Amino acid sequence: MFIQIEPQSDTPIYAQVTNGIMEGIVRGELIPGDILPSVRSLAGDLGVNMHTVNKSYHELESKGVIRIVPKSGAVICSPSEGTIPPQRLNHISEELRPILVESLVAGMNEEEITELVASIISNVKGD
């Protein structure tokens, strides 16, 4: 698993770690049942504070991406079978809304936004 931290980014480091792990899952580098490195180990590998990685792991757990098992570590969960729970879908919608509004205000039309989203998905998956 490769996570690149950009200290100068406006994105908090814990969010960069969270996003890096989720991208690893999307690319198939991490699969359900895989155990993530310990907080101490990943923090050392990335050169960040242990509390930063701990915050990232708890964020991933709250999103249902991982399950933290005492004395076993953080385990990648299987994706939800069937439909996404309504509360999770609402959360995703709330997160996307300001970005979509900004895109529309900037002058993008629906087709351009759709193409951009498809391009980002392709890039994340490594297609």
Structural write-up:
With 127 residues, this protein is mainly α. It is 56% helix and 6% strand. The protein is built from five helices and two strands. The chain has helices spanning 13-26, 39-46, 50-62, 86-105, 110-125, and strands at 66-69, 73-76. It has a two-stranded antiparallel ribbon with strand order 1-2. Helix 1 crosses helix 3 and helix 2 (39-46) packs across helix 3 (50-62). The radius of gyration is 16 Å and the shape is globular.
What is shown here, in short?
Helices cover 56% and strands 6% of the residues.
Secondary-structure blueprint:
Layout: H1 13-26, H2 39-46, H3 50-62, E1 66-69, E2 73-76, H4 86-105, H5 110-125
Antiparallel strand pairs: 1-2
Oligomer: single chain
How much of the sequence is in beta strands? 5-15%
Main structural class:
mainly alpha
| Biggest pleated-sheet summary | 2 strands, antiparallel
Radius of gyration: 16 Å
The helix count comes to 5
Task: Please supply descriptive tags for the structure shown above.
single chain; 127 residues; two-stranded antiparallel ribbon; 5 helices; 2 strands; 56% helix; 6% strand
